[in-house]
Amino acid sequence: MSQSLTQPTPPAPPLAELALTGDLARPALLTVPDLLAWPQHRVRVAFECAGSGVRHHGFEGPLLHDVLRDAGPRFDPARRKDRLRFLIAVAGADGHHALLTWAEIDPDFADAPVLLAVGIDGTPLDRAGPQLVLPQDRCGARHISGINTIKVDGCYPSRPGGITGWTAAQPGGTTG
After folding, report:
1. Which listed site, 56, 83, 149, 169, has its alpha carbon 20 to 30 Å from 122?
2. What are the pLDDT digits (tens) for 90-101?
3. What are 6-57's pLDDT values in tens digits?
4. pTM score, whole prediction
5. CA neighbor of 120 nearest in space, from 150, 98, 144
């Protein structure tokens, strides 16, 4: 009688997780498969890298705006400009960080097509985690791989004078 010795298949590494935190009504922990629930967009980008020249890639994934809007940012929707005080901090597992403003991604303002890429050049990013892609940036410095945290921060006052020691000078020398 012969026995077949086979090596057990090692378990697949876990899916990368992305934490949506901060001033959100519905913070969440998402994986790349979760991000497939939003409408998917495709972009071709050319990033000019300082050390290696121009790099061309194709990315696909949902818009950052769509994902964050569904998480319920805590601004007053009746006050259009209230959302302008919100910052978005993105961190990758490799320690890289980028900062965006809500106005950059909001359709009423700059409407930049910023992606949470779930694939690059046809390769899924399930295990590596999503990537932040800003197609409008000539340089890829705000491209973040393996995103593990996105924090939405609206702790900035929406009126002048709300920050200690800050006043807005008006024409004619008045403040207010």
Report:
1. 149
2. 999 999 999 999
3. 777 777 778 899 999 999 999 999 999 999 999 999 999 998 877 788 889 9
4. 0.82
5. 144
How far is Cα 50 from Cα 90, in angstroms, rounded to an integer?
22
Place of tokens 């890429």: 117
**31: which residues sit within 8 A by CB, 6+ positions away?**
15, 16, 17, 18, 126
Give buried/exposed letters for 64-90 (b at 16+ CB in 10 A, else e).
bbbbbebbebebeeeeeebbbbbbbeb
CB-based contacts of 145, cutoff 8 Å, min separation 6: 92, 93, 94, 96, 128, 129, 131
- The distance of Cα 34 from the centroid of its chain, to the nearest Å, equals 15
Pair of tokens at residue 113: 């097509």
Torsion angle of the four alpha carbons 81, 152, 37, 43, in this order, in degrees rounded to the nearest 10: 80
Q: Any idea which residue has 């050049």 for tokens? A: 121
Question: Residue 97 burial by CB count (10 A; 0-12/13-18/19+): exposed, middle or buried?
Answer: exposed
